[in-house]
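Thread: "does anyone have the structure for this chain?"

Original post by V.I.:
We have the sequence but no experimental structure in hand. Need at least a predicted one for the grant figures.
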Amino acid sequence: MKTTVRSAFESGLPALLTLYSELNPDDAPLPRASADAIWTAISKQQGRTILVAEVDGSVAGTADCIVMPNLTRGGRAILFVENVVVADSFQRRGVGRRLMEAAVQLGESADCYKVQLLAADDEYVHTFYAACGFKATARGFRRYIA
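Reply from O.Q.:
Generated one for you, tokens below.
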């Protein structure tokens, strides 16, 4: 099994949308025209990288990363990771670990002082991130906007 991690391409948008439907199965499917417009906006954002993991040519997982410039910590940026998902059929094969390693490498190459993410309140997910070297050192807060 050969796993590679790379930046997503627009031609891979249908595979990304399929992965996102596994991440949030209760969400209504995003119309393709909307997805295309959002992809265009994402591709223009400086510091934004959507990573995809491929296993033997099939898209198996993704992580959305963005570097946020920062005026503290000596001007070193922060890398935020969001929308991490590995397809059910590829879980427990090292795909998620490879994605997180690639995200950390992005942060290192952008001279970030930390990589930050929020995780669902799920012990399996917390154990996974801990195994990838992340520490639960803060309490996260969210306020959803309807």
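V.I.: this helps a lot. The chain has a mean pLDDT of 94.
O.Q.: and The domain at 3-131 is CATH 3.40.630.30 (Aminopeptidase).
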